[in-house]
Amino acid sequence: MQDVTGSASPIAVSVRDVGMVYDGFHAVKSASFDLPAGKFLTILGPSGSGKTTLLRLIAGFQAPTSGEIVINGKAVSAVPAHQRSIGMVFQKLALFPHMTAAENVAFPLKMRRQDARTIPERVERYLDLVKLGGYGGRRIHELSGGQQQRVAIARALVFEPDLLLLDEPLAALDRKLREEMQLEFRRIQRELGVTTINVTHDQREALVVSDEIIVMDAGEIQQKAQPTRTYRNPQNAFVANFIGVTNFISGAVRSVAGSNAVLAHSAVEIPGIVGDERNPPRAGGQASGAIRAEQIRIAANARSLSGLDIVLEGSIRDAIFEGERIVYEVCVPALAGEALRVFDHDPVDHVQFEPGAAVSIGWNSRDVLVFNN
Amino acid sequence: MRAARTAYPLTWRIMDVLEAFAAFVWPTSFRRAIPYLLLAPALLLVGLLVLGLIQIGDLSLRTLDTSTFLLSENYTLANYRKALTEPLFVVVATRSLTGSLIVTVVTLIFAFPYAYLMVRTRSAGLRKFLLIALFLPFFIGQVVRAYGWLIILGNQGMVNEALGLIGVAPLRLLYNYPAVLFGLVQYMLPFAVLMLAPALTAIPEELETAAASLGANWVHSFIHVVLPLARPGLVGAGLVVVTLSLTDFAMPAILGGGSQDFIANAIYDQFFRTSDQGLGATLALMLVALGSLLVGIVFTLFGAGTLAMGRARQ
């Protein structure tokens, strides 16, 4: 309970140097973070990054090989899963098929020996909360995918747990329903104020629902920050690459001055900002400049890009129409023929470049983050 | 020419010829008959069984003339009256029925943890060991196994010798009811485990994890989640064990030593000892009726769908 990170609310979950080793494989390597009560945290990472393992350790399905997990001030390593007050929504929902929706929601109350007379009222209240009022008598297989999700949420919340864990429950849904459920999770979490940890590989979901995002890779926490910060100030090349569409231009570091660094690629000098202050590039070393696809402008000629710091000539290699935007791959001779991905969100003038067309691209130096290779 | 040959290999030509021949012998318009054709062997077998049952039914209505040892020409229900009133047959029937029920319950209690461990263990080695241990006795016939128990449990058997070493007087372990039931349980265990294992495999492990996260300890998780979902497997295994035990012959004959006859032994005696084919046929029919009644009760209580024979529900 010591390191309260500036915020007023107490720490609900504290993960301290937690590690997990299976048969010599380090699934989680010494992860540490604190989560204030009432916050929505998303652990984001590719498959095999250790995010699900970390969640299962918090849930108590496995014991960590090192470190300690503290929930509401109590170390829980010795507490079995069924004695922790944690609601969990599983990837495959894990609803009990032989029970009705209401019986599923009543299950944790019965297991906790709640007064049987209050159970129906409480179950109905939580079914109302997830907008399933009146559906209690339905069997699980009589409900649609979205309704089953809602039953799983009600079941995980009905016993008012200290902590709600979401193990990629939305992964199997189609896109429309998934986006609807993301907002639904957000609404319910705000309404109840329950501390929540969500695990996903979907960066959009992480950005939409979370107060905080932890990006994990190879069993290590890469960055923990608010969504906008995670997106705009990725702490290392992995985070920059994993979230959003990012171009990496590698080159030799020409000079470093304060938070500014200049890369040289072929004959072009590319100024940028130092991405990771704790691991800054050094002059003479190799580094990569990361720039988002939406931060590069594209135009038919250089004159329309006159306000930008860097303007280069190129030719369209591929043009992919994605509806709300067009994704171009632009071949840049000045960068030894390297191809950069560029988003064009501006189809107002109905211009679409065809492959082979000569174009100009440009960007501002403050949008280039320089990371050590 | 060569190019043409590689483009259309010899095997394809042979297939063409075969297909043309098949089309000549069995034109496509006959194709709808194929399912019925495939059903024919089974129907033939069931038909023969029904014929046999009619024959037995006919026999059961004739009484044995003890002076000539011939069956009577006229039909009478005397055999049925005898079977239902003769104390010996009532004792045998009660013994078989209670025996098969006890065997079923005990077998299911033993088989469940075995099947559960076999399905859920993460160790491939342990799973293999459990499977082999299950299948090995399958290769040894029931009669041989029963003789094996005679050797182990006899007055000079291994068990009594071991007891003798610690100063216990020889126990009479054979030729009694518990010995028969013991032999039957040991014989039925693999059947029950093999019927239970698929049913337990069908229960996602995540459901038990979910139950734990919702506050259920393993006892509650077992009672409220695993057991109800394993019901189809339990019903199926129970049906197999109860019918096989009810109609068993070898275990009561060998481990019971003639003093613990089941219905099948009584039927055997009527046919081959007293040569009263009429009474034997009557007992056989009543055994069929008793078995069908049991299966019927189980189906009405749990529904035929519990055997996972209906279409899977979405």
TrEMBL record, chain A:
Any Pfam family hit: TOBE_2
Alphabetical list of InterPro entries matching this protein: AAA+_ATPase, ABC_SmlMolc_Importer, ABC_transporter-like_ATP-bd, ABC_transporter-like_CS, Mo/tungstate-bd_C_term_dom, P-loop_NTPase, Transp-assoc_OB_typ2
Keyword Transport: yes
GO BP, sorted A to Z: quaternary ammonium group transport
Keyword ATP-binding tagged: yes
Assigned keywords, A-Z: ATP-binding, Nucleotide-binding, Transport
PANTHER family, A to Z: SPERMIDINE/PUTRESCINE IMPORT ATP-BINDING PROTEIN POTA (PTHR42781), SPERMIDINE_PUTRESCINE IMPORT ATP-BINDING PROTEIN POTA (PTHR42781:SF4)
Entry's family note: Belongs to the ABC transporter superfamily.
Protein name (record): ABC transporter ATP-binding protein
From TrEMBL, chain B:
Xref: SUPFAM superfamilies: MetI-like
GO CC term, one of those recorded: plasma membrane
Domain ABC transmembrane type-1: 93-298
Coiled-coil residue spans: none
Membrane-crossing segments per the record: 36-56, 97-117, 129-152, 158-175, 234-255, 283-308
Main location: membrane
Gene3D superfamilies in UniProt: MetI-like
Top-rank taxon: Bacteria
Any one of the GO BP annotations: transmembrane transport
InterPro entries, alphabetized: MetI-like, MetI-like_sf
PANTHER family the UniProt entry points to: INNER MEMBRANE ABC TRANSPORTER PERMEASE PROTEIN YDCU-RELATED, INNER MEMBRANE ABC TRANSPORTER PERMEASE PROTEIN YDCU-RELATED-RELATED
Family per similarity comment: Belongs to the binding-protein-dependent transport system permease family. CysTW subfamily.
Protein name: ABC transporter permease
